[in-house]
Amino acid sequence: MACRICPKIKKYDFFWIVFVCVAMWGVNKYQEHKAEVKKQVEKQQFLDLQKKCLFGDEVACKEAYHSESKNY
After folding, report:
1. Cα end-to-end span (Å), the chain
2. In this structure, are residues 14 and 5 in contact, taking their beta carbons and an 8 Å threshold?
3. Which of these, 27, 31, 51, 68, has the minimum number of CB atoms within 10 Å of its CB?
4. Per-residue pLDDT tens digits for 30-62
5. Helix, strand, or coil here: 71?
């Protein structure tokens, strides 16, 4: 039995399918990169608070260890 879908797909349609897939992949990579950068910044801020706490800053200790929103 012959394929009924294949003759209906033209080269132009195939080009648009590939274009949309590549565009979606690019957007996904961009969003992943932004999330990774944000995570690294938050981690660095937490490490800085830990260093300040180690050197005796009570405010930094409270902010670093008594904050429930950060789960490290």
Report:
1. 59
2. no
3. 68
4. 999 999 999 999 999 999 999 999 998 888 888
5. coil
Q: Rounded distance, CA 46 to CA 66, Å?
A: 12
Amino acid in position 13? D
State the residue range of the domain holding 59.
42-71
* 16 domain residue, yes or no: no
Tell whether 4 is covered by a domain. no
Assigned token pair, 16 = 């648009």
Which amino acid is present at 43?
K
Which tokens is 17 given? Answer: 């399918």
19: which 2 tokens?
């274009």
